[in-house]
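Pinned message: reference record for Acetyltransferase
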Amino acid sequence: MTDALAPSSIAAPTAAPRIETARLILRGPEMADLDAFAAFHADETRCTGFGPVQPWHESWRWWVMNIGHWHVHGYGYFTIEDRETGAPAGITGVWNPGGWPEPELGWVVYEGFEGRGVAYEAALAARGWAYDVLGLPTLTSNIVPSNTRSKALAARLGAVHERTYHNPSMGEDELWRHPGPQEAQR
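Predicted structure (tokens):
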């Protein structure tokens, strides 16, 4: 009998590409980035548009799920790295777990990096990659109705509110539709 989980039967994980912008590097998630994400996820003021406050061990589960998401879909959340300091500044990328209506462009910026255009620059680069490399025909952003900052960023990216729906993880959510590959700013 063959063991289905034998190392020879497990494919190598999908490696995330490295995308460089003027001020940022988008790269695959690494376990060394977990503490910055967990600090964000433990802060009630910061994480409410992303999900409920989570203790470190639940952030660990989400982080590992993101790494697995890359393997299953060939895309996921990048770590946003500040080019000047090398510090993790947040996450952005394409997310589509079970129960999601379609692939979503998402973003989170960690404490100390807000108000500097980091989320915009990173999301723009991730969206361009999703269209140009993955060939996705469209993207959405799923935004909690009270998250005015994310709605403003979605609008700045050219997305428009399409409808409200029930998100299996977040409850009531707004689906914002991004312009397609031909119309999207790069």
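Pinned by admin. Summary line: The first strand starts at residue 19 and ends at 20.
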